[in-house]
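Colleagues,

Please find the record for the four-part complex below.
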Amino acid sequence: MATIRELARLCGVSSATVSRVFNNPEVVNAQTRELILSTAERIGYLPNESARTLATKRSRMVGLIWDTDHRRPGWRHPFFQEILIGLKTALSERGYHLLMLATSEDGTPDDFLRAVRRHNLDGVVFIDNGRDDPSLQPLAASEVPCVSLDRPIQGPRTTYVTSDNADGAREAVRHLHATGRRVIATITGPTRTRPGAERLRGYLEEMAALGLAHRPELVVEGDFYLSSGYAAMRALLELEEPPDAVFAAGDEMAIGALRAVTEAGLKVPEDIALVGFDDIELAALVPPGLTTLAQDKAGFGTAAAAAVITMINEDVTPPPRLLPTPLVVRGSTGPDPRF
Amino acid sequence: MATIRELARLCGVSSATVSRVFNNPEVVNAQTRELILSTAERIGYLPNESARTLATKRSRMVGLIWDTDHRRPGWRHPFFQEILIGLKTALSERGYHLLMLATSEDGTPDDFLRAVRRHNLDGVVFIDNGRDDPSLQPLAASEVPCVSLDRPIQGPRTTYVTSDNADGAREAVRHLHATGRRVIATITGPTRTRPGAERLRGYLEEMAALGLAHRPELVVEGDFYLSSGYAAMRALLELEEPPDAVFAAGDEMAIGALRAVTEAGLKVPEDIALVGFDDIELAALVPPGLTTLAQDKAGFGTAAAAAVITMINEDVTPPPRLLPTPLVVRGSTGPDPRF
DNA sequence: CTGAAAGCGCTTACAG
DNA sequence: CTGAAAGCGCTTACAG
């Protein structure tokens, strides 16, 4: 591994000049610059990132906090992979790498902050795991740029990215209403989560706006997982006056609901129309096709990357970013040509 | 941020001693050790990783190469998330972090190797993306410990982890045979991929072992995606003597095949039995439940972590690791109580 | 068991 | 536009 010193000697300059070529190229004489660059190429010189980080206190690495392991099973993000691709791509275009942070064995509450300090991470992206994690508090309270997905966090240099959940829910209700349904129920996510609460709010607002009576028994809480949608739908079918449409706050729950409807001998969309949320892959695959509000999966990653890089470089905190959730119409609210 | 020098001064020792407490604790006097440890705790001292890496040439970071971005869409790993959890967990238990490597903008063939050198990565894990990636060649040829998932790689310090694909395929055929099927077709993965080729080999071997005639028209190539399974199944149904059982080399293809069977007015498992491979989540959710060979998703991550850490610390190259693929029987090869 | 000293490979005022 | 020099925060023979 060639070092900056060897490269400098080979070019007959000081290592300061070589360093400038890589960090501030416009400041060095064009000819020497070219000489240095081509020599670097020839001998395979690569700047040592540890040394750079040590000297500059900036690592050009962003931490990813995604707190899940085999001991805490059950949580799967509906589109973690897409977020990660978006994040990785956007970050690497700006010259940043992603370091996956693991909660360390000792599990003290400032674990993540410690990892950030040890590695001189320039910022952090946090994927909500649906739980309250005390390790986040010290991090958020620090001066480290933090962007969170789907969950507002408090701190001097924090912001978040999320879908416009309330708006999406409103559109779901509007769409069901437009197809002629009048008894519209909802299966919510856990209302302690932000997306759960917001989607419920949107539902309630739009029901009111459309002049549809609010019937509390039409609101059933689920937990985003398939089986809760199944159970909730069975409960709804037991009602005196069952709904003719259901907005489920997540596609998995909607698919569970779909199964319950089918098992009850009813048909989707004829007897009951269904709208989900997320647009997971399965939504397009399960007959008769699930109408849903699409979350901008890659957009999450891209927006998070943009936000954290802004905070790193400009010392400003961008406002929370709300991503639109386009309605994708499939067979569960009307005929789908493919099925 | 307290430095080792301040901590040393506070404790009345040299920084060499402090360093030893963190790297070689047994070598320092118990009392001073305790003093240093407690003082470190009190003032919040954290060793600076960049400085350590610079001094030792070891970063305690492993690179993850997972070469996918939005410009190359289409590829999704069937259980990337599970692998990543397994990998992250196992690595962090040994004190390693995971750095996600991005192909850099310039895209030269030694991109990954360059990243490894710049960051002093101790090793690398590579998730097969189903394509041949020339960037891997220089890395594999180097002295950097590399473990690859699902694809053998050549190099002085390389090994790989994969499912026992041939054995799983054999078991699939055996199971179908045991349930009374005699005309057993297969929908293969791309045979240029290792898993695709191995699963086909297992199928052929077991067919021969069972004395079932080899009929070339019963072998149809797919690409692991759902639609290819659908198309392949339609082709199989057109045969003079259609199969009464199909082993699809991936669950997605099996689910596509399932749809084709249903659309043709036939029933699974009565008319045609189906076995998949992978045990993706959907396999349990799609009626009548898909019998499949389960890949040990977390095991991939754990085994990869173990292999790379062995190579890092012991300078030996562990042999390739073959993970077993237990048969999970569901409704597609017989009655499933849940449907 | 411990310390003084050199070294890891960069960057960055400072001076010219 | 460039160089000499100090500094970033550790580790590790070497000597005691």
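Chain B touches chain A through 48 residues (CB under 8 Å).

Comments are welcome before we finalize the supplementary table.
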